[in-house]
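Supplementary notes for students who missed Thursday's class. We covered one full example, reproduced here. Read the sequence, then the structure, then the short commentary at the end.
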Amino acid sequence: MERRQIFERRQPLPYLAYVHEAALRMRFGGVEVTRDQLKHLAERSEQDGIDVRVVPASVSGFPGAGHAVLYAEGPVAQLDTVQLDSAHGPVFTSAEAQLTKYRAHLDWMNDASLPPAASRDLILGIAREL
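Structure (token representation):
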């Protein structure tokens, strides 16, 4: 609930999320909870500054698959930071070679993902299938 406050500010920061279709089909907490989460995700994706893009299951390969990645960028690229979630806790990196690697991953995801409206349609379609 506290993380939600970031999106409810007067001037929220822009947020771009890439989600693989397989993650949307996992039923954590049961059917109703999953359906509610998918609907909430679709609703939030209509908010200004929030862009949710789905990488469809038909796309083969996925750089960094299995890892949650947060790429925090700002006006000075040298200060960008990547946070990787692992079983042992978060790992942060800001080394230029690593940032270059993750920028390439994000470029790949951008090219492989559905546009925002098609992503929202797929999310809502999965919710209806449950």
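Commentary. The chain has two domains: 1-56+115-130, 57-112. Residues 1-56+115-130 form one domain. If anything here is unclear, bring it to office hours.
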